[in-house]
Design brief:
- There is one protein chain.
- The chain has about 350 residues and is an alpha/beta fold.
- Helix 4 links the parallel strand 3 and strand 4.
- Bound molecules: pyridoxal-5'-phosphate.
- The site of pyridoxal-5'-phosphate has 12 residues, from helix 3.
């Protein structure tokens, strides 16, 4: 067996310990005689898996009692519609557009009501986070929307916007569980699992109870109502059971490592190795304004598309895979999620140094 260093933005690297444990339990989950994949989602065994997963997530994030945790499907993209369908009571919402994912969410909301773009960094190719300390928040806005970590561009909100009392809705797909979070500052937090938590197929929604309403937009499908999933404890229909089981293992792994404060310390140290190198290098440089840099997604370029391609090719041959930047921006991107060990980044930087020397 030979594992590579996988810098994919998602689906992405998972902790080896978790994968091994899942492999050990593949044929017989703890004496049940079957795999979690083969098990009724109404069984006592699975009920314990999903309840434990929720309890561990609540412990990790310190989720207050008045928030519900939902394990859903449809990916983060389905939330682009589900959020306005469920929350747009006045049919008005304010969007801060800091990348392609926020833009897609903004455009989708426009199908259901008046979506206002109250700030954007598109003028700078999304290379920074706009000042959100005094935005023209609409008086009747049902919520203010952000994408907290911009996976493609490598920016992160280090200060949350002043929403002037409106509920904050955040897509945290690519920074979920990467650092401690004050859940009480948000109305709704959501993310696809496949970036930093588990396999594709699970999306986790953490929603304040007062935002779970009966009077959703007319025509909202049953499956797209938060209330239906909340009332049924995420078991209205068959949930993505195996994915939830793996997410639960990752939550345990994070708790064992000391929780989110310890994880942040590790992630800061890890990202620093790469950013310090980029800042010192004569060949490679980062594309993001320094104060807005993400700890999870690090885009960089040489400024020469041919050299970029040569780098990606040689890196792949050396076992550093999925470093090609998003198709919309080019260059390179190293996604260094929770499960990327610090040695992976040290070795990548070693490889980059060597490449720089050889191609100077
Ligand atoms: C990947 C990603 C999405 C899209 O996720 P899907 O699960 O493929 O729909 C949305 N938002 C962010 C921030 C992402 O990184």
């Amino acid at each position: 067996m030979s594992r590579v260093y996988n810098f994919s933005a998602g689906p992405a690297v998972l902790p080896e310990e978790v994968l091994k444990e899942a492999a050990d339990e593949m044929l017989d989950f703890r004496g049940s005689g079957m795999s979690v994949m083969e098990m009724s989602h109404r069984s006592k065994t699975f009920e314990k898996i999903i309840k434990d997963a929720e309890a561990d997530l609540r412990e990790l994030m310190g989720i207050p009692d008045q928030y519900r945790v939902l394990f859903l499907q449809g990916g983060a993209s389905q939330q682009f519609a589900m959020i306005p369908m469920n929350l747009m009571k006045n049919r008005v919402a304010d969007y801060i557009v800091t990348g392609q994912w926020a833009k897609k969410a903004y455009q989708e909301a426009g199908l259901y009501g008046k979506a206002n773009k109250v700030a954007s960094s598109e003028d700078g190719t999304f290379s920074y986070i706009p000042d959100c300390s005094d935005l023209p928040i609409s008086e009747d806005a049902d919520y203010v929307y952000i994408c907290e970590n911009n996976t493609i561009y490598g920016t992160k909100f280090w200060t949350l916007p002043d929403t002037k009392g409106k509920p904050l809705v955040a897509d945290v797909s690519s920074c979920f569980l990467s650092e401690p979070v004050d859940v009480s500052k948000y109305g709704l937090i959501y993310g696809g699992a496949q970036k930093n938590i588990g396999p594709a197929g699970v999306v986790i929604v953490i929603i304040r109870e007062d935002l779970i309403r009966e009077d959703v937009l007319p025509g909202t499908p049953t499956m797209l109502r938060y209330k239906v999933h909340a009332d049924n404890a995420s078991l209205y229909n068959t949930p993505p059971a195996y994915g939830i089981y793996i997410c639960g293992k990752v939550f345990r792994w994070l708790i064992k490592r000391g929780g989110l404060a310890a994880m942040k310390e590790y992630n800061v140290a890890k990202a620093k190795i790469l950013y310090d190198f980029l800042d010192a290098s004569e060949m490679f440089y980062g594309t993001v304004r320094k104060e807005d840099r993400s700890l999870m997604n690090v885009p960089f370029v040489t400024g020469n598309a041919e050299l970029d391609a040569k780098f990606v090719k040689e890196a792949t041959q050396a076992g550093f895979v999925n470093l090609k930047g998003h198709r919309s921006v080019g260059g390179m991107r190293a996604s260094i999620y929770n499960a990327m060990p610090i040695e992976g980044v040290e070795k990548l930087v070693g490889f980059m140094k060597k490449f720089e020397e050889e191609n100077a």
